[in-house]
Structure formats: C-alpha cells, structure tokens
Amino acid sequence: MIERLRVAILDADDAITERIKWRAPSFCFNSVDRVTFNLRPLHHVQLIFHRGAKTIEDDFDFDPSKWSGLLEMIGQDRGQVIFTSAEAAAARQEDFVALVREWVRA
C-alpha cells in the first residue's frame, strides 16, 4: 500500500520530488515539504498534508470541505489522510491523487 501511494503522489504532479523526512517518504513541491508519511502507526497508513515544517499564517487558498471523508484537517494549514487497508486506498486513489494535486498547488 505504501509503494502504491508513493507512486500515486509522484504521478500527481511532475514538480513533486521525494526525500526522506522523519524516517519516511516525504514529498516536496517547490522545495517545500507538502505530504509526508507517518509510518509509526502499524494498523493503518497516515499521510500528513502540510505546508512545510512550521505553520504558515497567511491566506491559504484551499477548501477542505471539498475533500470531506478523505482529508481531515488537524490544524489551520495541516491535514491528514488515513487509509486502514490497501483496499481502502485503492478505492480512493483517484480522489487521493486529485487531493495531492490541489494541495501542493494551494
């Protein structure tokens, strides 16, 4: 499931690059971390959607209500996506890729 999600994120936008952060795959847009795996929970896969290491207090042109049921906002400019199984990730892959594309460009 992790490999499939990695490929989906990289395929979402040609400008996305990958590196390791917090001992897990992290994906950058314009050299800023935007989506990072949290691999510590063993019973699901958690991806943190963020705008870099620190909260940025400016106008964030992103409507999280569009992604209800997939993205849970956990801060002003941070969200999370949790997949409990490979089947759940596969079922939402198209929406997930669209979310990544919109998030990194917001």
3D architecture notes:
It contains 3 helices and 6 strands. The chain is an alpha+beta fold. The chain has a 6-stranded antiparallel β-sheet with strand order 1-2-3-4-6-5. Strand 2 and strand 3 form a beta hairpin. Helix 1 crosses helix 3. The termini are far apart. The model has no long low-confidence stretch (mean pLDDT 90).
How many DSSP E strands? 6
Number of helices: 3
What is the rounded Rg?
13 Å
**Structure classification:** alpha+beta
Biggest sheet, in brief? 6 strands, antiparallel
* Average residue pLDDT: 90
Q: First CA to last CA: what distance?
A: 26 Å
| Percent helix | 25-40%
Sequence of strands across the biggest β-sheet: 1-2-3-4-6-5
Low-confidence stretches: none
Strand content: 25-35%
Given the C-alpha coordinates, what overall shape results? Answer: globular
User: Helix and strand succession?
Assistant: HEEEEEEHH
Domain YdhG-like: 2-104
InterPro entries: YdhG-like (IPR014922)
Protein name: DUF1801 domain-containing protein
How would you summarize the topology of this molecule?
Blueprint lengths: L1 H11 L3 E6 L2 E6 L2 E7 L6 E5 L22 E4 L2 E6 L2 H6 L1 H13 L1
Antiparallel strand pairs: 1-2, 2-3, 3-4, 4-6, 5-6
